[in-house]
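Hi X.,

You mentioned you wanted examples for the new student's onboarding notes, showing what a folding record looks like when two proteins sit in one file. Here is a clean example. The first protein comes first, with its sequence line followed by its structure tokens.
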Amino acid sequence: MPAMAGWTEIGDGVFVRRYAFFDQNIGVVLAGDDVMVIDTRSTHVQGREVLDNLRELTTAPVTVVVDTHGHFDHAFGNHVFRPAPIWGHAGCGPFLERTGEARKAKIAAEEPALAADLGEVVIDPPDRTFTETAYLDLGDRRVELRFLGRGHTDHDIVIRVPDAGVLFAGDLLENGAVPSFGDAYPLDWPETAFRVAELAQGVVVPGHGDHGGAGFADAQAVAFGQLADLGRRVHLGDLTLDEAIALTPFPDYPAEEVRRPLERAIRQLRGELN
């Protein structure tokens, strides 16, 4: 898929490019001779497209890659960025190793146009990991990697570029759709999202859709809290699932799209999620 547009500079030396496939944002931070790429897309073909598009910004090689989390659309392109070190949360590698091959088969069935490209993918987990906070010195600037708690998965991180006032939130935030709850922890996500909002200094880049600011991050956190509360009310018998769906905390999208998130919240309340 082609990019929807070129690179947008959202802070000094900090860029985002929005790709049509899954309406996804890929970030780049430039600092001296260092080039950081945030997320690597869904296949080696898509990863190489990022590398080609980078030539519009710099001729320098990629020196650092960061995976916001281990879902296929964020980490299956990793291998083509080697030998650059790849950073991620300590839980990202085990997640990729545990789920990667099965996800390749599942996505190939769901997205037939990707099937051949997925066959080429080498699952290549991060080789530089951390549990809470890591600081990366790039050129004359410092970039902060933070794990703020469970949410979209149990290992999502955010990337903060303090001197540029930019925060890459990965899929802890999403704009233009109801966020994905397939591997989520709905009861934990509200507090984690509020922590994301507290770090917002200026531009906040979600994993998918338009970038925004602190207000956007706050609104998502509030919606996650409302969804968790609806799940609790269903669990307690105060509402039926259909009644809770009708009270969707994401009113701009079809109400039925919160069925799976609510079911996931109820499963967590029942103690069915580790």
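Then the second protein repeats the pattern, sequence line and then tokens:
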Amino acid sequence: MRRALPVIVKGGEAHVAAAALEREAGIVIKKLRARGFVACGAEQCAPLKSALTDGDTLLVTVAGLSEALNLTANFDENRRHVALVPASRNASNAAGVARVGSIAPNLRLTKLDGTPVSLDEFRGQRVLINSWASW
């Protein structure tokens, strides 16, 4: 995301509105059934430690969002706007290790009838992989 989002300060912390995140950055914030919230960006989903409501507006802390989705927050000089950009990945992440909440690597498998299938064919859908072995 490169566009600056308006910052709302509550309790001494910088927040952004969930609606602005979705509209301007393509980051969706959803309430989980049990409790808590999850943030989903282009490459991953991750739980948020906190979110709050201000009337009908759902607010997310910039620090919590940055931590959850591995983003760097670049504030303007007055801290009234923030641009969220993907943080540089460290060497351990570059090795291709999948993390919880990240998009799965493209797997190519053979179905029981012998036809090949690629995980990319199911992008955007929920997939259950039932893997077993007999010895």
